[in-house]
């Protein structure tokens, strides 16, 4: 029987977008997606493809793990304390 994993990805897209003083529409245009995609990503209801995650990180000129964090099953993330 397979174990059900509840791993997830959290993000700081909202924080980076606001600090850059961009609207959802402006960020969406820069990374090639719809405003709705940015909206649902910021709400935590959408996990972007790896390509989109890299586009967003590149746009903000940061490493991908500065914006997107992997959270392992059980609520602990992969970063060392």
TrEMBL record:
Coiled coil: none annotated. Residues 13-67 form the HTH cro/C1-type domain. It holds the Pfam family HTH_3. SMART domains: HTH_XRE. The keyword DNA-binding applies. InterPro entries: Cro/C1-type_HTH (IPR001387), Lambda_DNA-bd_dom_sf (IPR010982). Keywords: DNA-binding. Gene3D superfamilies: lambda repressor-like DNA-binding domains (1.10.260.40). It comes from the Bacteria. This is Helix-turn-helix transcriptional regulator. It comes from Candidatus Enterococcus moelleringii. The lineage of its organism: Bacteria, Bacillati, Bacillota, Bacilli, Lactobacillales.
């Amino acid at each position: 029987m397979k174990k059900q994993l509840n791993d997830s990805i959290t993000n700081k897209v909202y924080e980076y977008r606001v600090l850059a003083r961009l609207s959802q529409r402006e960020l969406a245009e820069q990374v090639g997606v719809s405003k709705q995609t940015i909206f649902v990503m910021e709400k935590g209801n959408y996990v972007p493809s790896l390509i989109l995650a890299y586009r967003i990180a590149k746009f903000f000129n940061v490493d991908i793990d500065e914006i997107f964090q992997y959270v392992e099953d059980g609520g602990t993330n992969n970063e060392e304390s």
